Amino acid sequence: MNGLLESKKALVTGGSRGIGREIVLEYARAGASVVTCGRHSSEALTSLSRELKDVGGQHRVLIADVTHAEEVDHLVDECRATLGGLDILVHNAGVNSRVPFPELLLEEWQRIMDTNLGAAYTVTQRALPLLSAGGSVVFVGSRVATVGLPMGAHYTASKAGLVGLARSLAKELGPRGLRVNVLAPGPMESDAPMPPEARQRFEHGVALRRLGRASDVAGVAIFLASDLAAFVSGETINVDGGV
């Protein structure tokens, strides 16, 4: 435990795996009390609960679909009951798919938008009364927001929307002492197998010649949540190894 987030209270959506899981665990190790959620009951959520118990502290792992306002309300109510308030809000819940634009159905466009962008609106608005002055809101976006992604117009648009949302909220909520920023990961390692030629192509496009790890993103998430970033707001920080 490095103490950077000692006594801080955090809500992290989409914490069951990948980047979200790493942020949850690193926040807990840094001294924060964390409430997090996953969309469905899963072994990943169960194992996360076990890991948080090993870390120690006051944490809650819940099931909540953040695309449904009533489930967001339940999530925020749990934060109020368990933590009493919030210093940190991380919207990490997200989904992705690859679909050629001519074949992109409205239902799939809306599914991606509802989770990646719509839920950021809902969670932030509902959690706002719990956020205290000096608090930090972090949206987990994507590097593709500014470079584009073939067969990913819907995903790219949703992540680009987070940038505009963050910049506007930074101006609106700044007088309340709240900071709002975007974390934009580049090509990342994942649990899914990747063909060697695809890996080589991605790595060749990164200055550091490797894919990112969840821990790379979590480290910057700790910075943005901590007092070290007390004068950082409205920014998008690319964590992409130099794409």
UniProtKB/TrEMBL annotation:
PANTHER family listed in its UniProt record: 3-OXOACYL-[ACYL-CARRIER-PROTEIN] REDUCTASE, SHORT-CHAIN DEHYDROGENASES/REDUCTASES FAMILY MEMBER
Entry keyword set: Oxidoreductase
GO molecular function: oxidoreductase activity, acting on the CH-OH group of donors, NAD or NADP as acceptor
Family, as annotated: Belongs to the short-chain dehydrogenases/reductases (SDR) family.
The organism of origin for this protein: Geodermatophilus africanus
Domain Ketoreductase, chain residue ranges per copy: 8-186
One Pfam family, short name: adh_short_C2
Ribosomal protein keyword on record: no
Keyword rRNA-binding: no
UniProt superkingdom: Bacteria
Protein name stated in the entry: 3-oxoacyl-[acyl-carrier protein] reductase
